[in-house]
Amino acid sequence: MNDIHSGKPTPRLPELNAGAPGLRERPASIKSFFPWLGVFIFLGLFFFYPLARILWVGLSSSPELIFSSNAFIVIRDAVFFTFYQSILSTLLTLALGLPAAYLFAHYDFRGRSFLRTLTAIPFMLPTVVVAAGFTALLGPRGWVNLGLMDLFGFTTPPIVFAGTLGAILLAHIFYNTSIVIRIVGNALAHLDPRLEQAALTLGAKPVRVLRQITLALLRPSILAAGLLVFIFDFTSFGVVLLLGGPRFSTLEVEIYKQAVSFFNLPLAAVLSIIQLLCTLAFSFLYTRLIPRTVVSINPRANPSIRPQTSGQRWFVVVLCISLFVFYVLPLSSLPLRSITRLEADQGQRGQVQYGLTGEYYRELFINQLGSVFYVPPFKALGNSLGYAALTVILSLLLGFPVAVALVHPGRLERLLDPFLMLPLGASAVTLGLGLIITFNKPLFSPQFRLISSPLIVPIAHTIIALPFVIRTLQPALASIPERLRQAAAVLGASPGRVWFAVDWPIVRRATLSAAVFAFTVSLGEFGAASLVVRPEYPTLPIAIARFLSLPGGQNYGQAMAMGTILMLVCGAGILFIERLRLPGTGEF
Amino acid sequence: MLELTDIHKTYEGTPLLRGISFTVAASETVCLLGASGSGKSTLLRIIAGLEQAEQGRVYWDGQDLASIPAYRRGFGLVFQEYALFPHMNVIENVAFGLKMLDLSDQEISDRATNVLAKVNLIGFQRRRVTDLSGGEQQRVALARALAPNPHLLLFDEPLGALDRSLREQLMQELRAILHASGVPAVYVTHDQEEAFTLADRILLLHEGKIIRAGSPAEIWEEPGSAWAAHFLEIGNILQGVVKSTMGPVQVETPAGVFNFSCGHLHKVGEKVELLVRPQGVVRNAHGNLHGVVSDAIFHQDRFKVTLENGLYFYLDMAPKIGEGIALEISPAAVQCLS
Fold first, then answer.
1. Residue A190 in contact with residue A301, Cβ under 8 Å?
2. CA gap B44, A413 in Å, rounded
3. B79 touching A, CB under 8 A?
4. Which residues of B touch A212 (CB under 8 A)?
5. Chain A within 8 Å of B13 (Cβ-Cβ)?
């Protein structure tokens, strides 16, 4: 889910370096179309055309398909459950996120920035890692259940977590609380405290101030945060598939099931269209809300204060401990479980072996099942790294010229810019479905099908990463004041040297950041890959999902080991990007 | 009426207010005048109940306000940069305080419209406050504070963000409104012109204490300290030594010798600070003050002439720059500051 949508593109910065007014609005010419050529062909071929194919397949399917009672029930249940779990998840996320936003915006305490970073990490973690983390904590072979079994002698796991609605909700809260903390917290931190004070001096009691001033001013931000969380919950795929089990199907999961398990592409296409229309509507609402979130507000953030009264201290301590436990336990259970043997070997129930083990990692190099479709897990890691590298190269090659062209947008740029962001609106599963529908046929030669080629994965990942790459590069490029270039030129630097002396040092950071971003997105991506990947070339997340679904402690341990590797690699990527982030950019 | 006794407050470990006491009588406008960072806004917020003093008491009509929260004090506060509610229009802003009084809708609307008329904003009722100019926003803020008929009005540098001509116009209006309403007011500013225009009484705040209090005329006559004379830009300040106390006091300074009459007792050899006002000075070859002109700036109907020793005076005719001149300073323009 979020590995696709992690972070909205940064809002367009106002043009600071206005040149001569007549020069800015360049007329569209053949030449100005040049930088767009690559992106245009690529997105056209692999995104817009497949999307059109989905529409065609969905709309041209016989009406009986939709109105046959079976299909209708499938659609109805999927739509109902998608809304049901999204609304529930959103409300619960707000319930945790609003107090947390208040905590971070108002109070200064030791470990504040650590805790804030901690809550932000899951947002960019791959869904399989989060699913594996919660399984390691609360699943039938997780720490809590095995611990309780050992302590109280239960013969079966006492806590049923996997396959429950609770598991889905918990993972969604875990993922999206940081959205509320960022959006609402940011508004809170910039809310002019004198507005509340003015209301007080005018005779408003504190409760009334909270309702009529504070909450009234925060309402747009709370709505925006809630809507964004809702969109993420609505399009959630990995969490529902991996933690929800067979009982629960959101639209996303149902598209996947219909396409992969039943190969009912028309029904999958119809579901995709419904899904697409919903996300488009929500995204439209969200962009309408965004300009209203920053109302009235102090340019400087208010200073945070140390908690003073005992009530404030209790609030801070209790919330800090809750957040710490909620975020640290799943994230630490996973790596710890991957090096710990906690249960009896088969047939030796009762003789539990405890202790550290490196066995799960050693097993990664062995194809235990001996099947042609199952490769040794470390190969999956190799595949993923290869796909990720290709994704980085492709998305930078395609994105760089466009980002440069967008710095001084002409009529053409303004026209084309929104199209670049469209892939954000379509879900990864829909993307995968489009590629299946479009490219599952011979191309060039009777033997070659693009869908059977390993290349299809980096292509899908590039479509997902491209908007982020462009949105990372463009503000950095735009942030370079024209005056600096002019100064360098006046001092005698040739255009080439100007570029190396002025542009490159600034662009280098953004390029690196974009590259790591594309790499991390590709490495953790699950939705599209689960549809298009070939069994013999699995990605790491696909392999983790497979091993999680297999019985036996050995497979479970290996899933943990792979999950840990993925978590560490992505975590390193996230921290790296955070450190590179230009000040003032990268909010939602 | 309002009474403050021995208010103390520290800010980030350094003392900000160090024993402030004063009273505000009925219908009186008191200006707290001080440099930025002198703690005058903090003092205002303590009166309003938005901050607590570490020591000292605030009384209203003899009642200690320590346990009365801001929303029950009935004091109106006008903020610097206005702090208008951005999610409400003009009339909603003005009516906010009235709504807290549980009045009928009709009464709220009538009173809000009345107050808007007082500040010349009729016709602005439905405008968004974010679309108003600075001066208009300031009027809304004033109307909002006035509407619930506060016992006391508090102003925190209300004109600080406005340009000069608008500030002068609003100062006049504010003066008229304050006089007409008869509400006592505490007005905080760092601008001496505002203080001299608006105040019935000025309190000069320096290093956490009130160093001088009095009517504008009294303070202009007797600033009382070199810091005050300098801050109020009354004239030149000179260090000197008393040479003679027979007849008029005679003080020798690096710029020349001055004779003047002084109410204070002085000893010969005592070090004193003199205030030499720049007005009422004439060029006279036998004058007691000599200097070389470093600058002469046209200033309304005369010239501000600055000498190389840093002193300045107002003359009717501009001397040449670099010219050596002698000036006759009348004894009335000189006083000692102690």
1. yes
2. 54
3. yes
4. 96
5. no
Q: Which has the closest alpha carbon to A199: B104, B153, B58, B50?
A: B50
Chain B residue numbers touching A192 (CB-CB < 8 A): 83
pTM of the model: 0.79
Calpha distance B209→B19 (Å, rounded): 6
Task: State both tokens at B76.
Answer: 């109106």
Question: Each residue's pLDDT tens digit in chain A (588 positions)?
Answer: 343 333 333 333 333 333 334 344 455 566 777 778 888 899 999 999 999 999 898 888 777 776 777 888 899 999 999 999 999 999 999 999 999 999 998 888 888 888 988 888 888 888 999 998 898 888 888 888 888 887 888 888 888 888 899 999 999 999 999 999 988 988 888 888 889 999 999 999 989 999 999 999 898 889 989 998 999 999 899 999 999 888 899 999 999 999 888 888 888 999 999 998 998 888 888 877 776 655 555 556 677 788 878 888 999 999 999 999 999 999 898 888 888 876 644 444 444 556 777 777 777 777 665 554 567 778 888 899 999 999 999 999 999 888 888 887 777 777 777 777 777 777 889 999 999 888 887 767 666 777 778 889 999 999 999 988 988 888 888 888 778 888 888 888 888 888 888 888 888 888 888 999 899 999 999 999 988 888 888 899 998 888 888 877 777 888 888 889 898 888 888 777 777 664 444 443
The residue type found at A42 is F
Distance of alpha carbon A43 from alpha carbon B264, whole angstroms: 91
Residue B253, helix vs strand vs coil: strand
B158 part of contact set with chain A, CB < 8 Å: no
Which of B71, B130, B144 is the closest to A200 by Cβ? B71
How far lies B79's CA from each of A452, B120, B204, in Å? 69, 19, 20
Residues of B in contact with A303 (CB under 8 A): none
Q: Do B50 and A195 touch (CB under 8 A)?
A: no
Chain A residues with CB-CB distance to B79 below 8 A: 194, 197-198
Q: Does A309 touch chain B (CB under 8 A)?
A: no
Asked if B74 lies within 8 A of A200 by C-beta distance, the reply is no
